[in-house]
DNA sequence: TGGGGTTAT
DNA sequence: ATAACCC
């Protein structure tokens, strides 16, 4: 109902699901090795696919889930479907479903403004990211079945490089099928006479199959954009908004970048760079395109200047890089005030409890811990300070299954980091605490019979039970 | 303004 | 260790 059903617009003949798509791809890979004899027609056609002769043209898809946290909440609790729903973290409503948006609620509104706009708004707390994170990785893993090169951006966006998969599929197609190729979903700027961007059309079909698989297997809807690079794929994915997809034909790429009314809309140009560019009198995309490269390089440095000026033309040669497993795990909590050692220690214990569970499930071992704080009232309210240190190897070993063992030494380490940053003889006022595990290394592949095996507590005699969950002791609430 | 993430310097 | 970027 109400716009969450997929494929009103482009989903004919997309009944093929991901597994069948994979069978076809694999069959294609196997069958294409002895170089199928091609007719002259077909050779001519393939020649047209690479106009400039350089084989640099890529097919990239950007997949962007619709109001992701709200969708996960509606799956967790189907009674929320059909009602205006917002997901709240502290005083901020970080996202909301389309029911709520119809009633004037916007993403990243304060909870107060949102309730004012829409008194019937249902709010759920979204501070615990566990279910979002898990669903997010399911999406990435599903997309990896279509092509192994998938790059995550946040929890709800993925880039996939389809170049190789498109090429395989094209080589499988017969001459008559080739001339009958059609686009799936929208085309950016309606100008469909010239159908020579066959690879992008095939990309759009694969994008439709991806969205169909994500919906059928995970129950999530989203948008997709297909283009020749990441920047354009991302920009074009947002053109038709909930649950639709669009492909950008190259001759429309300038129209697309000019449709951005300000440089800050270009992904890669953030808050700081926008301010510095505005100080130079640059505010529109065309301003940036035509601005002196020399001056820009002096002002921002060679790397940033060249990159953002290319972005302003819609050019982006950055590769889609496989995200793989996460580089770090962190848990944070923000609050109005935290100003005593016991409060700090309690928060740290809470953060560590979650982190130890996560690290345990991941299987790899972090070799570094970092503590991050935000102090109140300091001139830069957004700035954070951090201290990090290696995790001693004897503590790393305890990280495997018996989290109770690692908890106490980890708290001690993190509290030392805290004392290194904050002089506890002086009054302090924190508004955020965060603990991060990073420098993750694959587990010690201790083989049976080796010294390592018997020296690794989680592998030898004790505690062969399954993964245990660490439970917080209910401590010290009398402090309040 | 939250609770995450990444890469570059 | 911080600063920039992304969501």
Automatic annotation (TrEMBL):
The keyword Transferase applies. Residues 1-39 are annotated as: Disordered. It comes from the Eukaryota. Keywords: DNA synthesis, Transferase. Residues 60-270 form the UmuC domain. GO terms for biological process: DNA repair; translesion synthesis. One of its GO terms (molecular function) is damaged DNA binding. Residues 9-26 have a biased composition (Basic and acidic residues). Belongs to the DNA polymerase type-Y family. This is UmuC domain-containing protein. It comes from Diceros bicornis minor (South-central black rhinoceros). The lineage of its organism: Eukaryota, Metazoa, Chordata, Craniata, Vertebrata. The chain holds residues 3 to 482 of 736 of the full protein.
């Amino acid at each position: 109902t109400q716009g969450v059903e997929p494929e009103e617009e482009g989903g004919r003949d997309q009944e093929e699901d991901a597994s069948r798509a994979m069978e076809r791809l694999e069959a294609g890979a196997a069958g294409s090795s002895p170089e199928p004899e091609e007719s002259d027609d077909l050779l001519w056609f393939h020649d047209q696919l690479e106009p400039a002769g350089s084989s640099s043209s890529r097919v990239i898809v950007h997949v962007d889930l619709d109001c992701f946290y709200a969708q996960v909440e509606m799956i967790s609790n189907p009674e929320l479907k059909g009602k205006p729903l917002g997901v709240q973290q502290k005083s901020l409503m970080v996202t909301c479903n389309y029911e709520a948006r119809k009633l004037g609620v916007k993403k990243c509104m304060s909870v107060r403004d949102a309730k004012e706009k829409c008194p019937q708004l249902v709010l759920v707390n979204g501070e615990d990211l566990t279910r979002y994170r898990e669903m997010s990785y399911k999406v990435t893993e599903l997309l990896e079945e279509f092509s192994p090169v998938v790059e995550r951006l946040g929890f709800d966006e993925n880039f996939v490089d389809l170049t190789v998969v498109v090429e395989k599929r094209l080589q499988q197609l017969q001459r008559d099928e080739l001339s009958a190729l059609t686009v799936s979903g929208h085309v950016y700027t309606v100008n469909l006479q010239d159908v020579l961007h066959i690879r992008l059309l095939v990309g759009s079909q694969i994008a439709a199959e991806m969205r169909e698989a994500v919906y059928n297997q995970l129950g999530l809807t989203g948008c997709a954009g297909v283009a020749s690079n990441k920047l354009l794929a991302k920009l074009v994915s947002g053109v038709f908004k909930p649950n639709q997809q669009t492909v950008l034909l190259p001759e429309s790429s300038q129209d697309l970048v000019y449709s951005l009314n300000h440089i800050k809309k270009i992904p890669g140009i953030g808050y700081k760079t926008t301010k510095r560019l505005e100080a130079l009198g640059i505010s529109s995309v065309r301003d940036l395109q035509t601005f002196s490269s020399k001056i820009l390089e002096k002002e921002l440095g060679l790397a940033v200047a060249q990159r953002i000026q290319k972005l302003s033309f819609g050019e982006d040669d950055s590769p889609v890089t496989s995200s793989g497993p996460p580089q770090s795990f962190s848990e944070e909590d923000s609050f109005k005030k935290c100003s005593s050692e016991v409060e700090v220690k309690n928060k740290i214990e809470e953060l560590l409890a979650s982190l130890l569970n996560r690290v345990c499930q991941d299987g790899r071992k972090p070799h570094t811990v970092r503590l991050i704080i935000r102090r109140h009232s300091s001139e830069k309210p957004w700035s954070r300070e951090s201290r990090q240190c290696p995790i001693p190897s004897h503590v790393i070993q305890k990280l495997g299954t018996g989290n109770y063992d690692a908890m106490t030494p980890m708290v001690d380490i993190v509290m030392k980091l805290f004392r290194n940053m904050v002089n506890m003889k002086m009054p302090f006022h924190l508004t955020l605490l965060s603990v991060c595990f990073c420098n993750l290394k694959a587990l010690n592949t201790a083989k049976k019979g080796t010294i390592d095996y018997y020296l690794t507590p989680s592998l030898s005699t004790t505690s062969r039970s399954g993964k245990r969950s660490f439970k917080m002791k209910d401590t010290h609430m009398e402090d309040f």
